[in-house]
Amino acid sequence: MGFLAGGWMAASSGRRAVPMILVAVVGLLWLALVSPAQAHAPNTAKAWGAGSEGQLGNGAKSDSDVPVAVKELSGVTAVSAGREQGVALLDNGTVMAWGSPFSFGGSLGDGSTEKSSDVPVAVCAPAPEPCPGSHLSEVTAIAAGQEDSLALLKNGKVMAWGGGKNGQLGNGANESSSVPVEVSGLSEVAAISEGSGYGLALLKDGKVMAWGAGQNGQLGNGATGNSNVPVEVIGLSGPAKAISAGASHAMALLENGTVMDWGEGSSGQLGNGTTENSDVPVAVSGLTEATAIAGGGPMSLALRKDGTVRAWGDNTVGELGDNNRTGPENCGSFMLPCSKTPVAVCTEQSKSAPPPACASFLGGVAAIAAGREHGLALLTSGRVMAWGDNEHGALGDGTSTGPESCGPFAQPCSTVPVESSGVVDAKGIAGGLQFALALGPPPTVSALNPTKGSTFGGTKVGISGEDFSGTTQVKFGSAPAVSFTVNSPTSISATAPAGSAGTVDVTVTNAWGTSATSSADQYTYVAGLVEVPQIGRCVSKPGSGGYKGLKPVCLVKSPTHTGNFEWLPGPGANGSFKERLSNPTLETTSGGKITCSFIFMEGELTSAKTLKVSHVTMQGCLLVGPKLSCQSNGLEKGVIESTTPLVGELGFIPGSTTSTPWVGWDLGAQSGFSSTMVEFGCGEGKFGIPTYTVSLKGSVIARVKPTNKMVATFQIIYKQEKGIQKPTAFIGGVEDVLTQITTLTSNPTEPKEEQAGLVTGGEMQLGEAMEIKAK
């Protein structure tokens, strides 16, 4: 919901069964984002930023500039971040809390007077239930504040716990409580939000109630005094459908899509063009079609129907996200940067534009949240963007020393949104004082195809399930897959590693955790199973071999095992290889070409169906047309080198027949065939920066021959036609094309992404004679 004196939370939702903390929409936007079409694994939570008081919940009291897992949380349906505490609502209707809620020991609601916990603890049921030993239950929404928290119950009532000196528990007293107490006189509540020592409740009829600290008019009742019981906010121009509490100002989203604010306005956070406080709601200037709101410290955010975000209030550390460190206006006696009316939040690419211009506006936003001095946006893709204060790593971008410096004290910040590292497929966000929270689901594996393969590995396995976006690892038992490709959020193609005979669980890991094991993910290794095509050795074993014949070709089986040869899958003592490909040309579908004189590759065979390339060198490379040499950074013109690990897999390619099988190697990045294989620059501009940067991702298939013959050298043939690789998939396999991304360095916001094809040929020299068995 809103926040606290220095760290604010996400906007609160109104009028739905479980208002998730970061959205302020009634309805369909958030539900469309998180409502599962199929069963998903229970959500877990991540945290990043300031952690000295345990507010990251990861069992430590230190900062983290990248997201870390909150310990022992599963089944999370909502998160809320206070000043220095986090709160999570679980799918069973109970609540967990962690961190150090400012000054009052006991604000975690667990009955303890300890001031902090660096791991989640259960919030107790109200007296007279024992604590510990009982749990607050039937909770549908949560909100964390400066040193207190709120919970909305299924019956429409509200519970509060923590500090109470300003009357923020709303129970008619000014005393603190380490267990939940009921907020007096509230029923039919649809949403809640908590600020710095005060609370808000949205009723189902659209009225707004407030209680607690009111010195800046944040209770909205026409007065500036505190109240330890709820009072009605007066002067709203229509029914509200969402609320959000900032530090000392409050917000209401009306049913007509406009927004009204009240309370402190010294930094322009009321958005009405002034810096005056107001003890009754005032209209935010020029804002229409709002669907969600979020109050921060001295700043406010609104999400519009078109998926863009507006911000107003303080901008000292870039918290408006408008690529501006000095304005657009100035507020207060120190004339600090601010905006008294809403401005659009930019994209990260806006850094290429001279401040204070926006090159483009942040769009595709599904939900917003506000911390004290930083904003958060959850995109429809599930990624999280953040901007503003980054002193303790609250942006989650892997640094706490930049990427910029803002304000009179050169505070680490970003004036435009940057991506929080490794957060994919997120379902919710929240912002606290100088930290943030997010929730999302681990993967679920529902089926494998096939469910068995050779102990020698190399079997291509299709994995079906849910929430595969951002997959970082696939394992067969304890062994990582040789390679994998995320085809979609519900499909992965993986190559099985070698294993011992028996059954293992196939697990998938993403940012939120690892899939739970079940009978649906079981894969069986079968000893002696020969899956063609595969590479190996047909060795002499007179009179006791599994294959007949007078020459080392393992084609005709000996049922009695009295043949002269035995098939040994995979490499022997020397599985190394070198490739030399001549006159390679890379062509895109639009006709762009890059030519080289040679490609050299080195690597090793890793199983009966896979290989690994450890080093690639390209020489004499040129971007045709402008005739610009292409090279890796720091190397001489025309020379491209890459040590990005590549993997290759054997398969049958179109053109195969039973009598004449065609076999190919499908080569792509080891980290996934959707990852970058190689990157380089072409041309040279100012300061030695290349005119273009080029990267290749996907995979590329080459035919390899001969088959069914022991040789030390194979012929490699890559073909393409008008930028389309021939072929683009194995027979029965998933299409995975080669993609070229070309970026003009002077205009990085508009990279050109095209399908591409490679034509070249040459030899693959093995460290020992081997055979590709295709029958």
General description of the model:
This protein is elongated. It contains one helix and 57 strands. Helix content is 1%, strand content 47%. It has 775 residues and is mainly beta.
Strand content: over 45%
Main structural class: mainly beta
Q: Unreliable stretches, pLDDT < 50, 5 or more residues? A: 1-38
**Mean pLDDT rating:** 89
Tell me the major beta sheet.
17 strands, antiparallel
Distance between the termini: 64 Å
Task: Report the total helices.
Answer: 1
Gyration radius, to the nearest Å?
31 Å
How many strand segments? 57
Coarse morphology: elongated
Please estimate the helix content.
under 10%
Features:
mainly beta, 17-stranded antiparallel beta sheet
Outline the fold blueprint.
Elements: H1 28-34, E1 44-49, E2 64-69, E3 76-81, E4 85-90, E5 95-99, E6 117-122, E7 139-144, E8 148-153, E9 158-162, E10 177-182, E11 189-194, E12 198-203, E13 208-212, E14 227-232, E15 240-245, E16 249-254, E17 259-263, E18 278-283, E19 290-295, E20 299-304, E21 309-314, E22 329-331, E23 336-344, E24 365-370, E25 374-379, E26 384-389, E27 404-406, E28 411-419, E29 428-431, E30 435-440, E31 444-449, E32 452-454, E33 460-466, E34 473-476, E35 479-480, E36 483-488, E37 491-495, E38 502-510, E39 513-514, E40 522-526, E41 534-545, E42 563-569, E43 576-588, E44 593-595, E45 598-605, E46 610-619, E47 622-623, E48 628-631, E49 640-642, E50 646-652, E51 663-669, E52 676-682, E53 692-705, E54 711-721, E55 724-726, E56 738-744, E57 752-773
Parallel strand pairs: 32-40
Antiparallel strand pairs: 1-2, 1-30, 3-4, 4-5, 5-6, 7-8, 8-9, 9-10, 11-12, 12-13, 13-14, 15-16, 16-17, 17-18, 19-20, 20-21, 21-23, 22-23, 24-25, 25-26, 26-28, 27-28, 29-30, 31-33, 33-37, 34-35, 34-38, 36-37, 38-39, 38-40, 41-42, 41-57, 43-44, 43-45, 43-57, 44-47, 45-46, 46-49, 46-50, 47-48, ...
